[in-house]
Amino acid sequence: MSAGAGNGATVAQRPMPFAVDSGLRLKVEQASYAYAATDRSAPKFTLGPTSFEAQQRELVAILGPNASGKSTLLKLLAGVLKPLSGRIEVDGQEVGDLDLRVRAQRIALVQQESELLFPLRVWEYVLQGRYPYGRRLRFESEEDCLLAGNALAQVGADELRDRWIDRLSGGEKQRVILARALAQQPALLLLDEPTQHLDIGGKVELLRRLRRLADENKYTVIVVTHELNLAAEFSDRVVLLHKGKSLRIGTPAEVYERDLLEDVFGAPLEVEMRASGRPRVILRGSH
Amino acid sequence: MRPLTPRRIMAICGLLFAVLFVVVVIALRTGAYPISLRDIVTTLFREALGRRDDIPLEFWQVVFGLRLPRIALGIMVGAALATSGAGFQALLRNPLAEPYVLGVSSGAALGAMLSLMVAPHIVGVIQLGAFVGAAATTAAVYFLGRRGGQLDSATLLLAGIISASFLSAAIMFLGTTMSGRDQRGMAFWLMGDLATPPSFHPGWLFVVLLVTIGSIYTTSSDLNLILTGEQEARHLGVNVNRVKLVVYLAASLLTGLAVSVGGAIGYVGLLVPHAMRMMFGTDYRLLIPTSAIGGAIIIVVADTLARTVVAPTELPVGAMTALAGAPVFIYLMRRRVR
Q1: CB of B282 less than 8 A from some CB of A
Q2: Does ipTM surpass 0.90 in this model?
Q3: N or C: which terminus of chain A carries fewer CB neighbours within 10 A?
């Protein structure tokens, strides 16, 4: 067995077929998306042309209020939607051109949990992440089990492996869903509002974990969220969206400007710059 | 972590085959003309060795002329119905989906009756008509069961129940206009009956069933993922549309074939996959073959009961499966709604 047992870091150590050490992993060039035009109306843009790049080990937050185009952008990155114009490349290859299973080996998307029809054990669920690597009928190999075990260890969910998924708490379930994504051994890890059903402790723990996965395991992590302070604390780069337009892209310190955020989120906000160089957003009191 | 292995599938299927064998032997001895176990074994043994002359004529007629063909038909119908039930449950993402409850069996029965009226002399026309009827009903229920672009569990079941009652009424109407040898009795089309052997060699039925069940089996690891969510399955690399098309066509064909030779037997597609899930887990790579064998077992048992409990009269086999299946349906529905 080439992957060392018990070493949680092994999951990410797969040979990367493309120019990975150059550091550039995701390139979004003027990508836009619109629902098809009908006879009477022009195409309705849900996302105007957007460009940004993400390197290895980077955590990028896509920020914005509801209906700002965050999820549309994430779906474009995942290859679920095809951009109306522009290009999206992962490791130098256009996402739309990738075969479904190859795409699943490069990109893992963590969405809000969907309802399970029949109960599953945690380990069965995490093993599903090995599907893109399987053959017909896909009986899992020992290596698959090892990698799934490593993925569980990476999210600190080792002790959950024999539990039923539908009996887990929100935070535990979130970790297990993340473990399945890690079992895919992706280069790009996409998460759609992963903090939505978590309490503050769970939110911080999850973001810490994602930060660590990016730092230690070379993942490029893209998180859609509207948690301003968590994004400021943990991300390297922020893409701020509003009404389907990308308003600003940069480090949290570059993006977090009081007037801009107040305008986008429609709330009285104060932005403080902390000693760490990361901003903090506070709700301004009315009195 | 104990992932499923081909060896485990073989072991469990071997066990179920042994149960099926025992059930078949019991079914062979049971009936208005009881035959001892020893006679059954010697008869089977002699037939296998080609020493037919040594078998008393009445034994031969009862075992090979009457009971064994009926049992073989039951095995095939049970396997087809249970597999198509498991297929529909994954396709429609609904644990209560089943060809009879969804009205697909009634659609198949109506299709078979219509084709019988239009072109009674063409071999296989009943099967073709039943398949078309099943496929059309599945498609109709699928689209009627959607709300806001999504399949809705309760709406789907209602659509199925309404379709079933509408189609049953149409069957009763048509049944009154049929006569002579075409009319195999209303009970056949509404509640199932295995007393009449098909007009063609059952070997054909066996081959087609095997290929169709095999085609569902090739999608079984994809179905495992689809059951945890279609979107998720797509992100994991499953070609969801292709899988759904294969399962849709195969499950409709299985229902069509089963109904064309056995009538609309209900609840097998519900009872068997759920029992197998309880015993062996939800993995479709194991569920498909165990459901097929389990379906065969349950139909042989139900048919043996149907022809013996109120002897000399016979009940339709569907009455027996409904007696067992309806309470299970209610139990599953309440557990889900709770």
Answers
A1: yes
A2: no
A3: C
